[in-house]
Amino acid sequence: MLKIKYSSLLLGILLPTASLYAESVPLTPPDAKPGECYAKVVLPAEYEDIEEQVMVKEPSESISIIPAEYDTVKSEIEVIPETKKLTPVVATYKEVVETIEIKPAFKIWKNSLDEDALPVSPIILSAIESAGVDIKNAQTGDCYREYFVPRKFAKNSEEILVQSESNETEVLPPEFEIVEKTVTIKPASKELVEVAAVYEEIEEQILIAPEKTIWKKGQNPAQKVSGATGEIMCLVTVPAKYKTLKKKILKEPATTSVVDTPPETKIIETKKLLTDYQVKYTSVDAVYISVEKTALEQEAQFAWYSNKNKVDDKLKFSGQQACLIEEPAENIEVTKMVLDTPARIDTEVIPATFEMAETQELIAEAKVVKTPIEADFKTIAKKKRVTDEQIGWKRILCQTNMSQDVIANIQKTLNDKGYEAGEPDGLLGRGTKNAIDQFQRENNLATGGITYDTLGALGIKLSHQQ
């Protein structure tokens, strides 16, 4: 069984605050200005176009024949010697269809095995790997789920000392006799009499917090339709704060005057000690009670289990899941001409002819001339993956810098380009969100919000800096 300790730490890791497949994303957008809003959006993978030469016709050769040369002589001899007739047969070709891979297959972790599943954050993959799962050797179709494992407790009994062995002490009071005595309770003195100060009350404005800019989470009107995080950060200006305080200003300071005070005496009854306190000690035994204690045996934690393993019914599924799927390669078919039968020479023997006449004397045999034919190539355009899909900050329109006119303009432009955004009413409904998401994906733009890159691709310019 795979386990993860420190569940509170894992919950923090699982929040969508980090980047997909690559470098970590900063907590706040860099180089932002007050009034601007940004969102963590999914930046699509980038590809570069490359060309590849594919042979569509193999190399071959053409064959031609230079005929034999003869000289005419008069004699009774063989007029036409035995010869060979050479007949060229041209090469034949046939068409074959070859499948060319233009985009390789690759494996990716997603949150389910469904076709519309979303990519899993690298932070979640790191958490799964930290739990001891060997995701590097995972097979296509493997899924891992996160479950909450509650705390475990154990009970035991313990003898608790509630009162230690001691000596009980009894104090016997002292004995006195009553006598009278004159005492001075207050000696003669000089007394200072204070004359209170006089104050005037005024009001004063006190600066308690200067003006500053802070990052606040914003609400994205185009709530995510795809796997984007949807997390919005807006840099806003917080005005300075003042507090009105009432103050007292001294008008006349306090003063004092000296007054003579006579001594005060009193006759009182006093006690004369006859016998002092006495202490009596008695021994007391210790007292114990039996207490049943519950001790924490195991902290609550999160654990990841494979979909191939049986999971205890008492464990609760947290909702987090990662599945390894394989995206298929993209191919095109190319028709090629390949050599079916090579060119050749058919030979026919013609017997010699004799007569008393002019004869033909062979002076040069027929020759075969072979001419090479180069292979034929075709250039195929392919796409090579340069960067993976990732999470990054993009400036977006949000509630602080968006109006109904801007939304209506976006809807009209999408409709003109063939994306069904609905009536241009300036309201950001599901049809408009789906049209924006479709436009972003088909144009290789970041998804998850109405970014300024999207506005630029639509050809929309704002009337003023927003």
Question: What do these coordinates show?
Answer:
By secondary structure, the protein is mostly beta strands. Among the domains are: 59-102 and 331-374, no CATH class; 156-188 and 262-296, no CATH class. It is 11% helix and 55% strand. The protein is built from 5 helices and 28 strands. It is elongated and about 195 Å long. Mean pLDDT is 79; it is low at 1-22 and 223-229.
Q: Rg, please?
A: 51 Å
* Unreliable stretches covering 5 or more consecutive residues: 1-22, 223-229
Overall pLDDT score: 79
Report the sheet-strand fraction: over 45%
| Adjacency order of strands in the biggest sheet | 14-15-1-28
Give the N-terminus to C-terminus distance in angstroms.
54 Å
Helix-strand layout with pairing:
Blueprint (H helix, E strand, L loop, with lengths): L6 H8 L22 E7 L2 E12 L2 E7 L2 E12 L2 E7 L2 E12 L2 E5 L11 H9 L12 E7 L2 E12 L2 E7 L2 E12 L2 E7 L2 E12 L2 E7 L13 E7 L2 E12 L2 E7 L2 E12 L2 E7 L2 E12 L2 E6 L9 E12 L2 E12 L2 E7 L2 E12 L2 E7 L2 E12 L2 E6 L8 H13 L13 H13 L9 H7 L8
Antiparallel strand pairs: 1-15, 1-28, 2-27, 3-26, 4-25, 5-24, 6-23, 7-22, 8-21, 8-22, 9-20, 10-19, 11-18, 12-17, 13-16, 14-15
